[in-house]
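lol forgot to send this yesterday, sorry. struct tokens for the thing we talked abt
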């Protein structure tokens, strides 16, 4: 409490002093004596106003009607300041990376270095405010009992899948061949299990979360929830596309096509896929509720029988923007790593596993859940052996990590499902050990905030410079991407609590 009261008194003075020092510093930076001096002066005046804005707003809030408004809307004021502090830290990160990245907004080194103290001081103020919120939350009483319907093993499995996915994008930034040499396709095959696992677990969520919402709150509440989640996915996807464009990894035309689903982003195709897949869940859950789980369980047969017919129509050319949309929906032409039609296989398996898990939990016996995982694993194993062999081991890893995926062939879906079943079973067996605090604040946190984890992790992978392929730097890069994702998720939680 003493620390909180001290920070409450210190914070306004800190902002005033820092704003004044930064304003003086900005005025002392020498300008260029060129014909553009007037334009540069206008820029400096605008920057000076931006630097002084926090202290001006704070001054208004502490006198007259501003003070009354502060008291009246104290809680809202805190949330607004916390949100500004959070985005200020994001902006500071962009600024610090500017000399090393390829941003479309460029500053000369002299200008960047001159503004560095200003940016750092405001970044420190934002950190102090976030720290103040953390102390304030720590001092609040913790409820004696908390109710949560979340299953920690599912969050962990989803977090591990995100770990594989974001890690694969980090490896892509350096080049799989450069990092792993002859073993590149083996490592790539392991990371390729991320998408099947994540989509299959999403199917479990359709059964365990959204179907339950339908049963308890009605169909309209479920529809509203799925549409809201789809819009969040689209917003996150749009932000990652903007960052890739800002970092010159997408051209303006490519970014425009990506935003309207006529093109793909470099790392965030999964968010594009999920925007549409969550909307598709609405009729899927209606069918599940109307006809039962076995109607959903028959979908893989429908998908692969229908796949024979999908090869007959004349699809748009791969280079046409419309071709990417049809590829995203139906896997044709073969230019997208995601196909909503074929992904119904993963979703169907996930809903069946979720149904059996729910029944086992209600019965107090886990035999049905484990038997279901085993039977589905064996069925997929037989399908994989029939469709893959004869082949060599090297050809198998190459095909699974490349050909099977982009062509949407059966082995990608059968083997990918096997990896997801194994991950779920291992996570379930280890569920008693997954409540450790360090897992809760790392891998499990990624699983709980999967949307943010994908958006932030992929944005960092696209933005950070891959300057060296030495082992220590690659490890540092991975720590920055995954650790940065976790830190930003926690900061977001503190800022918007």
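and heres what i got for the seq, position by position
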């Amino acid at each position: 409490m003493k620390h909180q009261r001290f920070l409450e008194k210190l914070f306004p003075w800190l902002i005033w002093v820092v704003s004044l020092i930064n304003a003086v510093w900005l005025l002392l930076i020498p300008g260029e004596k060129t014909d553009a001096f007037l334009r540069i002066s206008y820029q400096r005046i605008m920057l000076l106003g931006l630097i002084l804005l926090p202290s001006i707003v704070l001054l208004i809030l502490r006198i007259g009607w501003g003070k009354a408004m502060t008291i009246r809307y104290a809680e809202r004021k805190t949330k607004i300041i916390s949100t500004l502090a959070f985005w200020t830290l994001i902006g500071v990160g962009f600024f610090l990376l500017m000399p090393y990245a390829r941003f479309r907004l460029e500053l000369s080194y002299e200008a960047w270095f001159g503004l560095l103290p200003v940016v750092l001081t405001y970044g420190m103020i934002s950190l102090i405010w976030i720290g103040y919120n953390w102390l304030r939350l720590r001092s609040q009483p913790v409820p004696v009992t908390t109710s949560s319907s979340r299953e920690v093993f599912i969050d962990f499995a989803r977090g591990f899948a995100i770990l594989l996915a974001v890690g694969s994008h980090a490896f892509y930034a350096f080049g799989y061949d450069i990092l792993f040499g002859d073993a590149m396709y083996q490592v790539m095959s392991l990371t390729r299990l991320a998408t099947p696992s994540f989509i299959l677990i999403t199917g479990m969520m359709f059964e365990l979360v959204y179907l339950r919402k339908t049963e308890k709150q009605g169909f309209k509440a479920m529809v509203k929830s799925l549409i809201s989640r789809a819009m969040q996915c689209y917003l996150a996807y749009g932000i990652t596309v903007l960052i890739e464009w800002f970092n010159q990894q997408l051209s303006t035309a490519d970014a425009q096509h990506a935003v309207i689903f006529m093109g793909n982003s470099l790392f965030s195709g999964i968010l594009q896929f999920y925007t549409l897949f969550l909307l598709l869940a609405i009729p899927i859950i209606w069918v599940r509720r109307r006809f039962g789980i076995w109607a959903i369980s028959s979908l893989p047969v429908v998908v692969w029988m229908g796949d024979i017919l999908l090869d007959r129509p004349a699809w748009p050319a791969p280079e046409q923007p419309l071709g990417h949309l049809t590829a995203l929906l139906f896997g044709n032409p073969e230019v997208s790593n995601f196909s909503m039609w074929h992904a119904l296989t993963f979703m169907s398996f996930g809903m069946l596993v979720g149904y059996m898990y729910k029944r086992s939990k209600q019965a107090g016996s886990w035999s049905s859940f484990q038997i279901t995982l085993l039977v589905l694993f064996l069925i997929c194993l037989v399908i994989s052996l029939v469709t893959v062999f004869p082949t060599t081991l090297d050809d198998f890893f190459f095909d699974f990590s490349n050909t099977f995926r982009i062509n949407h062939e059966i082995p990608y879906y059968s083997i990918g499902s096997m990896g997801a079943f194994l991950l779920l079973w291992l996570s379930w067996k280890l569920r008693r050990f997954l409540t450790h605090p360090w897992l809760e604040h790392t891998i499990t946190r990624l699983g709980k905030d999967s949307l943010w984890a994908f958006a932030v992790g992929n944005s960092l992978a696209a933005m950070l410079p891959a300057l060296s392929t030495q082992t220590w730097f690659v490890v540092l890069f991975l720590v920055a991407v995954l650790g940065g994702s976790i830190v930003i998720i926690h900061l977001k939680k503190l800022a918007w609590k």
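Residues 2-139 form one domain. anyway ping me if u want another try
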